[in-house]
Design a protein that fits this description.
binds magnesium ion, 39% helix, Rossmann fold, 10 helices, alpha/beta, ten-stranded mixed beta sheet, globular, single chain, binds adenosine-5'-diphosphate, 276 residues
C-alpha cells in the first residue's frame, strides 16, 4: 500500500506525520519505506541514517527503480529514499518526460520489493514533483491545520489540485481517496465545529472525494521534542508529555490503516499505557 502525504501548503506537518507513521509501523513489525519527494530534504535526515545508499530520489525517478536508492534508517525495518535534488532539476525532468508524472508510481509498484507500506512525503507547492507523489498513491493523507479551515480555502487548494489530476485515470493513474486529518490544533479551538465545517465544505464542493478522519491531532511540544531527539513520538511517550501525542498517532494510524495490526507497538513502546 502506498500513502502519499500531501497539501498545497508548506509547514502544515506533512514531514512530521510521514516520519512518525513510518516509525510507528516499523516498530509494530512492518517493513516500511519512506520516500522524500521534497526538494528540501527534511524527511531524509529526520532519523539518523544507518546505511546510506549510493543514490536517492533522482535515481528512483529517472531510472524507475528502487535498486541502490534505498537507505536504512536507525529504526529497524524503516528505510528511506533520500531527496538528492537540491537544484530542483527533477521538476523540469518530469515536465519533459512523457511518463514523468507516473514514473514514481510504477517504480514503487514494481514487485517484489518486500515493503508492507510505502509513505511518500511531498512538498507543499503545486508542481510536477508534487503531481508525481500524488499520482503514486493508493491513498492520500493531508494534515489540515485549523488556520486554513475556511471552506473556500480548502476546496480551492487541495481539492482543486486533485481535480486537475483526475484525468490521469485515463492513463492508468487514478487519484487515490483523500483523508484529511485536523492537525496541530490548539486548545482554544473547538474540534467538532471545525470538523463539521470541513466535512460540509468538502461535501458541497466534491461529494465523496474526501473523508475527514475522526482523530484530531493537537499541537503539542512532544512532536518537536521527539523530532529533535530524532525518534518517533511513540518512543518519546515514556516521557511525561509525549503520552497524548503517541495516543493520537496510534489512533490516526489505526483509522487510516485499519488492516494493519498495531498491537505490538502500543504494548511495548508505551510503558504504562494501560495504567491509568
Ligand atoms: N502536532 C504538532 N504539534 C506541534 N508542532 C508540530 C506538530 N507537528 C509538526 N509540528 C511542527 O510544525 C513544523 C512544520 O512541520 P513539518 O512536518 O516540517 O511540516 P511540512 O512538512 O508540512 O512542511 C515543524 O517545526 C514541526 O516540528
Ligand atoms: Mg516537509
Amino acid at each position: 500500500m502506498i500513502v502519499t502525504v500531501c497539501s498545497t501548503k508548506g509547514g502544515v506537518g506533512k514531514t512530521t506525520l510521514t516520519a512518525n507513521l513510518g516509525g510507528l509501523l516499523a516498530d509494530a513489525g512492518y517493513r516500511v519505506l519512506m520516500v522524500d519527494a521534497d526538494v528540501q530534504p527534511t524527511l531524509s535526515s529526520y532519523y539518523p541514517i544507518e546505511r546510506r545508499a549510493k543514490f536517492g530520489l533522482h535515481h528512483l525517478l529517472t531510472q524507475g527503480t528502487l535498486e541502490e536508492a534505498v537507505s536504512a534508517t536507525s529504526i529497524p525495518g524503516l528505510d528511506v529514499v533520500v531527496s538528492d535534488d537540491p537544484e530542483g532539476a527533477l521538476e523540469n525532468w518530469i515536465l519533459h518526460t512523457p511518463d514523468g508524472r507516473v514514473r514514481l508510481r510504477h517504480a514503487l509498484r514494481a514487485r517484489p520489493h518486500g515493503y508492507d507500506l510505502v509513505l511518500v512525503d511531498t512538498q507543499g507547492a503545486v508542481g510536477p514533483l508534487q503531481d508525481a507523489g500524488v499520482l503514486a498513491a493508493d491513498v492520500l493523507l493531508s494534515p489540515v491545520p485549523p488556520e486554513i479551515l475556511s471552506a473556500r480555502e480548502f476546496s480551492r487548494g487541495l481539492l482543486a489540485m486533485l481535480e486537475r489530476l483526475r484525468p490521469m485515470a485515463h492513463l492508468g493513474a487514478p487519484v487515490g481517496h483523500l483523508y484529511a486529518v485536523i492537525y496541530r490544533m490548539d486548545r482554544t479551538v473547538d474540534a467538532r465545529r471545525i470538523a463539521d465545517g470541513l466535512r460540509a465544505a468538502a461535501f458541497a464542493d466534491a461529494p465523496g472525494a474526501v473523508t475527514i478522519l475522526e482523530t484530531v491531532v493537537p499541537a503539542a511540544v512532544a512532536w518537536r521534542e521527539a523530532a529533535t531527539a530524532r525518534v518517533p513520538v511513540h518512543r518519546w511517550a515514556s516521557r511525561r508529555r509525549g503520552h497524548e501525542a503517541a495516543e493520537r498517532l496510534i489512533a490516526l494510524a489505526r483509522e487510516l490503516l485499519p488492516h494493519m495490526d498495531l498491537s505490538v507497538s502500543t504494548e511495548t513502546a508505551i510503558p504504562g499505557r494501560n495504567v491509568s
